[in-house]
Amino acid sequence: MALYVYSIIAADHPARLDTLTGVGAEPSALRLVHAGSLSAVVSDIDHEVRAKRRDLTAHQEVQEQLMADGTVLPMQFGYIAPDDPTVKEALQQGEGAYLDALERLKGAAEYHVRASQDEEELLREILGESAEARRLNDRIKAGDADPRLPLQLGELIAVEVRDRQEALAAGLVQALLPFAREHAIRPPADGDILNVSLLVPDDQKGRFLDAEGSLARQVNGVDFRFTGPLPPYSFV
What we know:
Pfam families: GvpL_GvpF
InterPro entries: GvpL/GvpF
Distance between the termini: 27 Å
Main location: other
Order of helices and strands: EEEHEEHHEHHHEEHE
Shape: elongated
Oligomer: single chain
Organism: Streptomyces roseus
Radius of gyration: 24 Å
Protein name: Gas vesicle protein
């Protein structure tokens, strides 16, 4: 029977699994597959697992329960192995790398930071600070029929927006890095200017959260979304 693999943990992890529910329409009990110094948290499945809310929640709850008791290497949702021997072989072959990763992630959690900027406020800022943008905009508003003006203004504003948002995002990351052990920057999407994950040691959590709050209060026109603590998916 195939196995759904949730996480890799150290063999001495408490692994309190009794209260957890696995994935699937008829979830099997969670159990451990042992190999040397490592264990994999798995459950038996007999069908394809889809990314439904219930299963996504079950997968996440397993990570959070394990994370509460020790270090965990969380698998991305949907990782399936054909059988126990395949999982044992993978643990044995990757034992050194997995143990190194467990040590690297010990005593830390992932925090995810996204930010978006009020575009209308940014445009007003550009028109107020860029003499060239203001000149082109004034000519258009005054009825200048030169067909090149809208294109020139659009190109100028696009460059200004890109440069300013990149500089702002870089500044925000630099403000948070002192509290993180590692970080991973991803391309922003859906209108965001920042999409970054940070691996924050437990002893820096308070200072990190204070820095988050300070940024949210001090940076005008920016909407922050902070998520965490999370299992360290981005750093496995």
